[in-house]
Amino acid sequence: MDMKKIQHDFPILSKEIKGKKIVYFDNACMSLKPRQVIEAMDEYYYEYPACAGRSHHKLGEIVTQKVKEARISIARFINANENEIIFTRNTTEGINLLANSFDFKAGDIVLATDKEHNSNLVPWQALVKKKGIKHQIIRSKEDGTFDLDSYNENINGVKLVAMVLTSNLDGTTIPAKEIIRTAHEHGALVFLDAAQGVAHQKVDVKDLDVDFLAFSGHKMLGPTGTGVFYAKHDLLETLESFMVGGNTVEYSTYTDYKMLKAPEKFEAGLQDYAGIIGLGEAVKYLEAVGFDSIKKQEYELNKYITDEISRWQKIKIIGPGDPALRSGIISFYIDGVDMHQFALMLDEMSNVMIRSGQHCVHSWFNDKKIYNSARVSLYFYNTLEEAKIFIEGINKIMKII
Amino acid sequence: MICIVALIIFSVLGIFSATHRQMAKEALDCVFRRVTLRPCNTGFKEKIKSQMVAKLLNRSAFLARAFNRYYEVFAWIFFVLMIVSTFYVVKGGYNYYLYGSCNGLNQSGFCAFDPKGENNKVTEINASCGIEEKSEKNVSLDGVDLSSFPTKQVDSKDTVVLVGCYECDYTRKAYPDIQKLVREKKTNYIFAHYPAKENTNFLSEIGYCVYKEYGDRFWSFNDYLFTVDKVEIYQSEYINTILKNFDFDISKINDCVNDSATKEAVTNQVNQLRKTHLYGTPTVFINGKAFVGPKPYRVYKSVLNKFIIF
To answer: What is the pTM (predicted TM-score) of this model?
Structure first.
């Protein structure tokens, strides 16, 4: 990877705050945007700010073509078919689409991990109250990795396995292929929350044979307010539309309407064309960088940081000790220390930006009775030099705690 | 405690800076929560603490550690200091309003509202005057006979006495306010000329004679001497021109001035004024209370107001 070029591609990385460069380690929440994505969105607003699909004038045709190209790029990115890609605002919307469109009946079981983001927890909990489904949890092993034995014991009778592919809490990735194969053997369908997954590893929906999958654009260099919901096409046709209205029907009368086929029937209302085009560009950028390079860079940085902070006995890393199992994430806490304060001090001292809190996985923290944690989440544009600045800050803070 | 301290500090800074205004809002939210017996869980306290510790950490690990460990103690210290300083600020504001100086009546220490000390500046009286101590505590009308000075009696319960000199800048500054006060509040008024620099001793005699010979016509002559260019009144030959312009009989005034009884009377007036222990001009007595230096009009007025401000 040409780090100099990559850093140059991200305008924010050349900016300074209070005379210091920023060290952005909050990529699990929001990735930075390369100028290619920003320029693609700008181009929409400057050159062809019109409607796609419904308008047949010159500008409309350009937008229609650009959105189609983005859809094709994104489909290729996860090895899906073009008509299996539904644009959403984010992963949460994709999950809600599934939860509200799937034909659940009272007693149906939805199986999840114990580290689900609220977005893949609350929609199912809401269905427990609304439709009487059952929501069951597979607890992780001591080291935070997925417990396949427990999963295999509990898969019988499950209607849907709805699990996070890569945890935003500790970076662990579940053995998705094995989980999906077992689920299918037991007649269950599988949904993967790939919000943290698709940005950091190659996800091939055909290879995984996953039935449903959702991810967000903003964690993978794309614009905010963009996301994708994937479903196998035959399953997609069985889902009821979650939202209906403009763009979802072939025609309507005063008393009736006829729905379009997927994906249109799920994309109600005017879409975020600039965002979709930007997301298409983000996908191209990621493909150009390549996931091998991305994983290598994240691992090297994760290993360096893990080794350095492990010198401090007070620091407890959430999840497995081996950085290879934690993607680009290092979540840690110190007993008796408010990690919000810890993160704020790093920001104040050295412009090191990390996340603190419960990372929308309140259920796990409440269960473990841990107040909060600090989370370093890396991406391929982060450098060893930045990691050293972070460690320097950590070492300073640890001396006063 | 830190939220209260922060609220006050950021509110003041917020007057000038939008960033601090936002911080003040966050502090207010925190204080409001505490006042309504809810925990301050907005993260504001952590934010402030982190910023302070981080700043210290960049300079001294020892200080940062101490501050981090004894944060609550420091917060209380800051709180107490803030209460004390707030008390002094309020007191200073009160004093400034009432006396024209943050430090109290006739006190000349530094005052943020009057950084140049304009309200306390006086034309000091020559050492030869024999003043014992420059202290407003000694300045009093007790035992002083003012009956020979020009007086406006309007049967008021309030009496204003202005001791000043025609050539002194600060008396000239205070003079219009004193006239306005006397006019608006309809008080008795006594004017006493005290030639602080002794350049205008002769004006004491002329003033004495004008008042003696022409009574209330003295006041317009007096007003003129305080408004005319100072250069003119330094030179006694111009006075004849001024007297003529006021249609006074010059020879009559000159005869009076040359009269030994006049000289004795004026000397007696100066002696009476020295009994007040005044140390500079202007010195204004309002119902016996001394104000040394040219105070803002509101200061003079507040003494006569029923309720301080009205």
So the answer is: 0.75
